[in-house]
Write a structure and sequence with these properties.
The protein is an all-alpha fold. It contains 16 helices and no strands. The two termini are 34 Å apart.
């Protein structure tokens, strides 16, 4: 039990580092750049989510495949690492091209105009240019964690996060570099994590055996992680559209605060779910961990919503009035979302990629979007804040059905044998 708790806590702290990149930006931009800067960050957040989702797809997918092959005694397990690096290089190149040639077009496509167009374009361009480091950091962190070095992976992520906070402070507050300084701090931060992962004796190396055969398998194993990030992008866009009609730009700003704080909770629960112990099917312990962490986040949001909101609202009464009840209602989803993440990780680890993808799509997009539209039309802003909790409960029911079907299939197979 002690070993399990140590491993999970290290995985959680490591994944927590991922979310701090954007959370630190949110704090410094909201308090030192102003409303236009915060609006620009929220508009650019979907692109960051796609880049980060790509890293998670390759990192988690590659880590799962490497662990499966390594535990089976496969001498060519290193080819998974090589395939992951190849995927990361190709996709990073595409993102860099988008940043160089299409940043302003992306900004307009996301809804930026007027005074927020220029800072949004700057943030998107630099974020895309640094995408190779974001993706490589995800890959190396996942492989390091699955290579029996969760402490090193945790140190890599937390060091990068701490560096981001320090550089954000220096760039934005001391140098007064504005949005450019904020995104440069975020872009350079993963370099520290990459360096820490590389400065250790590793069990994984470059392999050359049937590299291209691993690419679709890595994609399948990590697809659920990517869908989680991509669906967040879709949900943000839908929520922004609905909030503009319900509460105007202040409602969008309130959602920006809630969504960025929620990144922390989601990262922690993802770290608890996507660890090597899932492969041993310690589901009971995992469920207890997920429920306790989710309950902790929900209780925190119910007890301290004003304190959390005040960190980002700069004392705006109008913004606080919208963000406080929104935070309390939105965070109810964490009572069950941790269990859903655990089920997704378990399906992926058991090579049931289709079930993992189905559950990811249900909780990420398929159920959230109609819940948001229907509940917002019936109950207004309150209904919109309850859309995600409602979708998580419905997803849990579907996930439990998939688990029941798996158990029934295994039992039938044993009886037949």
């Amino acid at each position: 039990m002690r070993k399990y708790l140590r491993f999970v806590s290290q995985s959680v702290l490591g994944m927590l580092g991922l979310s701090v990149y954007i959370l630190a930006d949110t704090f410094f931009i909201a308090n030192y750049i102003g409303a236009d800067g915060l609006a620009s960050l929220n508009l650019a957040l979907p692109i960051y989510g796609i880049i980060n989702g790509t890293g998670l797809l390759i990192g988690i997918g590659g880590g799962v495949r490497y662990t499966l092959r390594h535990t089976r005694g496969d001498e060519n397990a290193d080819s998974v690492f090589t395939a992951s690096l190849l995927m990361g290089a190709v996709l990073s190149f595409i993102y860099v091209l988008c940043g160089v040639f299409g940043a302003e077009h992306l900004a307009r496509l996301l809804g930026a105009s007027g005074t927020v167009l220029q800072p949004t374009t700057v943030y998107l361009k630099v974020c895309c240019l640094f995408s190779p480091f974001f993706i490589l950091n995800n890959i190396l962190t996942a492989f390091t964690r699955n290579d029996d070095a969760p402490g090193r992976a945790m140190a890599a992520m937390l060091t990068g996060s701490f560096a981001n906070i320090v550089m954000d402070w220096y760039m934005v507050c001391v140098l007064n570099a504005g949005m450019l300084g904020a995104v440069l701090a975020t872009g350079m931060s993963p370099i520290f994590g990459v360096a820490i992962c590389l400065t250790r004796k590793r069990g994984y190396h470059i392999g050359k055996h049937r590299i291209f055969e691993e690419i679709p398998k890595i994609s399948a194993a990590g697809f659920s992680a990517f869908i989680g990030e991509f669906s967040s992008t879709v949900v943000i866009l839908i929520f922004n559209y609905l909030l503009l009609s319900l509460a105007g730009s202040t409602g969008v700003a309130a959602y920006g605060i809630i969504a960025n704080v929620a990144l922390v909770a989601t990262a922690v629960l993802t770290g608890a779910a996507h660890d090597r112990r899932t492969l041993t099917k310690q589901t009971r312990r995992g469920v207890v961990t997920a429920v306790l962490l989710g309950a902790l986040f929900t209780v925190g949001a119910l007890l301290f919503p004003q304190q959390v909101t005040a960190v980002f609202s700069k004392g705006s009464a109008e913004l606080t009035a919208l963000a406080v009840p929104g935070l309390m209602l939105y965070f109810l989803n964490y009572l069950v979302s941790g269990v859903n993440l655990l089920l997704i990780a378990r399906f992926a680890a058991a090579e049931r990629s289709r079930d993992a993808a189905v559950l990811s799509l249900l909780r990420g997009v398929i159920l959230v979007v109609p819940c948001a539209v229907v509940l917002a039309n019936i109950f207004g802003l309150t209904g919109l804040w309850l859309a995600v909790p409602t979708a998580e409960v419905l997803s849990l029911l579907c996930g439990l059905y998939l688990l029941y079907r798996e158990k029934k299939s295994e039992k039938t197979a044993l009886q037949a044998a």
